[in-house]
Amino acid sequence: MLHKHSTPALIAVGALSVLFLISGSIACKKAETPAAGAAAAPVKEGSNLTEGVNEIAGTVKSAQGKYFYVSQMPGYDIVAAGAIEGGDASSLLGKDIKAKVVFNREFPGFLVAQSIEIKESETQFKSVFTGTETAVPAEAFSQKVRADYAELAISSINKSADWEGKGKAKVRGKLLPGTTAQVISVLNAENKEIGKIIVDSMSEYANYYVKKLRLFDAFWFYIDIKVSVPANQRAKSKEMFHADVVFAGLY
Fold first, then answer.
1. Last residue of a domain, one of 98, 130, 162
2. Which residues have C-beta within 8 Å of that of residue 127, sequence separation ≥ 6?
3. What is the CA radius of gyration of the chain?
4. Same-domain status, 104 and 177
5. CA angle, corner 244, sides to 238 and 249, nearest 5?
6. pLDDT tens digits, 229-250
């Protein structure tokens, strides 16, 4: 039988136990929270980047000029605006690197390198790049402007009204060597050639993407349309007009 004072005592003990558990839970949560001013942990694969400087690591899988990407950061192009020891970004191909990069939410998909180190051993890294530029290059094609480049519908190589005055457009095709310049072989839905576009210039960013897409037979070219090829020359060469290529992609 319980003593007449047992019930209040048990209630008191129970209350103290609950308070102890709550205090312990709060203490654990505080222990899990980084101290103010603590260094940010490196960004892991699949995690969200934060505004400003982030640390990344991975293996360089494609590179051209000042642009490259690592397999552990899919969806992001990294730009190193400045000299890289060993040449340009192509010198990083196949190498394991770690880097500090700037992420700006106004330009999603781009990371601007502040430093790059290549792995030489399990414990040693060598610095090959340091930079101060934080802005995304003007030539880098933003997803925000894709809608400005409508698909170009070409009914005939002799119907110049199909492209003249259009300005910006996109065409599906493949890049081929030409007699004096590269040409885009424009393809229809059945992969039959409609005609050709003479490439006067291709931005470094577009060249980088053409290299990234090298395993695909055809893809989309985003172009600035220029002057038409004279009508009496089109029948023989199938070349319709000149253009500058600003980007290439799968859609």
1. 130
2. 85, 115, 116, 117
3. 29
4. no
5. 90
6. 999 999 899 999 999 999 999 9
